[in-house]
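tmp note - AmmeMemoRadiSam system protein A
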Amino acid sequence: MPDRAELAQLPGPLLLAHARAAIAAQLSLPVPSVPDHPALHNPGASFVTLTRQGQLRGCIGHLAPVQTLGADVRENALAAAFRDPRFPPVKAAEWPEIAIEVSVLGPATFTHCPTEEDCLRQIVPFEDGVILISGSRRATFLPQVWEQLPDPQEFIAHLLQKAGLPVALWPSDMQLGRYQVQKFKEEP
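out:
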């Protein structure tokens, strides 16, 4: 998994091109040739986010490497476009309006977080991606979510809801994960 220095060296436009090519091929649309790069063959974890007219249209990813970065970006692009349960599959007619963002995750560090106050002391707003884990429940927000939820308490409350955990009763077994991303975004 890339560290902070390696994240800064990633070929962003190439990652976006691979994501776009994977979805276009699935839609039976013309697919331009996309060059290869050594970074695509290293293990990596990514999230691919799709937006349409500035609104979320799909977002799927992995928190830890399960394959090469290139394969992960392509798989998550297809999943975001066609298998995000919150949205119907992307159609060819809307494809020209879809903007893609690829986030490559750095390694997560985990700590026990027995209280909400302890959790809030550890996170760095607008920098950290956050994972909350309690029992079999787990949820994450990429660092980009801070733009919509800038208040740390509200950020954590929404993340608890996403995980299906009670907002008013902090679980004593809570694990906090923090990670950084390198994001690459197409202009709409």
